[in-house]
Write a structure and sequence with these properties.
binds zinc ion; globular; TIM Barrel; 291 residues; alpha/beta
Length: 291
């Protein structure tokens, strides 16, 4: 009886121990999963963003690239399994409404050159890719009207901008109405000692003029903003948010991590594609995650 009691008790203790071990393993597995989920949520999806300007023969500056090299870039991305994503797709992802493809990459063009339509767009179509083209309102309103449709140097007319948008693979961004060539301030940054209210009123007036002219001439409302020369100042952010821009682009040369938080699209960093490097050399560092 005595032994029998102890045998039963031992069996009961062993069962209890087994149950406890199973609970501990289960809790650990759940904890591990929760930690991994939290880590991947925080780190986000790696996104390199490439900044092009003019695609033209015989490049002479850091902001020109030959059509042949541009074609090589697109082929390289395609052959290595990269998929271009639009700013709209990124926004939907950050709000939890969409997924992103494997190996996402973003292509952008600044300044609004006509060759973005005449040369770059057919190449993007060939590889089923998309891009953001950020234009300067004054260049379309005045400069392009005087001397349109020259591949080498013309800017996009309003009709050209409409044609880009109608392709279904180009999003039109703002690059200010006329702060790009402003000699006094670098791009649209606040000046040293400038009154913040005055600065924000000036910025809002300039950006509003581009929105107004763009809507009048094309029906498009830009929601992406590219800082001229990448000069960012924090005083610009409330103005851009109030005006409904959901994505802003800088020129800091590093990759980005896209999370389920829409604010991660404010200040996407970009690599300028200058013609000095081969396609392989350029992408060998651009497509690497930040260390
Ligand atoms: Zn620019």
């Amino acid at each position: 009886m005595y032994h029998c009691y102890h045998a039963k008790k031992l069996k009961y203790i062993l069962l209890l121990d087994l149950l406890l071990i199973m609970i501990v393993i289960g809790v650990n597995a759940w904890h591990h999963h929760a930690v991994m989920t939290a880590v991947s949520y925080q780190e986000g999806i790696f996104l390199p963003v490439i900044m092009y300007h003019s695609i033209t023969e015989n490049p002479e500056t850091d902001y020109q690239l030959s059509p042949e090299m541009f074609a090589q870039d697109l082929y390289y991305l395609h052959a290595n399994g990269y998929h271009t994503v639009s700013a709209g797709q990124l926004f939907a992802y950050t709000e939890g409404r969409d997924t992103l493809p494997e190996k996402p990459v973003m292509i952008t063009f600044d300044d609004g050159f006509y060759n973005n339509l005449s040369i770059a767009l057919p190449m993007l179509e060939k590889y089923d890719m998309c891009a953001v083209v950020s234009v300067v309102g004054y260049y379309s309103d005045v400069t392009a009207e005087k001397d349109p449709h020259v591949d080498r140097y013309s800017y996009l007319t309003w009709e050209d901008i409409q044609a880009l948008e109608a392709s279904g693979r180009i999003e039109i961004g703002s690059h200010t109405y006329n702060l790009h060539s402003n000699a006094q301030r670098a791009g649209c940054s606040i000046l040293y000692g400038e009154d913040i209210d005055n600065y924000q009123a000036m910025l809002k007036e300039d950006l509003s003029l581009l929105q107004t002219r763009m809507i009048q001439e094309t029906g498009i409302t830009p929601k992406i903003f590219a800082y001229p020369y990448g000069f960012v100042c924090r005083e610009s952010i409330p103005v851009l948010k109030e005006m409904g821009f959901f994505c802003t682009l800088t020129c800091r040369e590093q990759g980005n991590y896209i999370t389920r938080d829409p604010s991660c699209l404010y200040g996407l960093d970009r690599y300028n594609r200058n013609p000095e490097e081969s396609t392989e050399a350029f992408f060998s560092h651009v497509l690497q995650e930040n260390s």
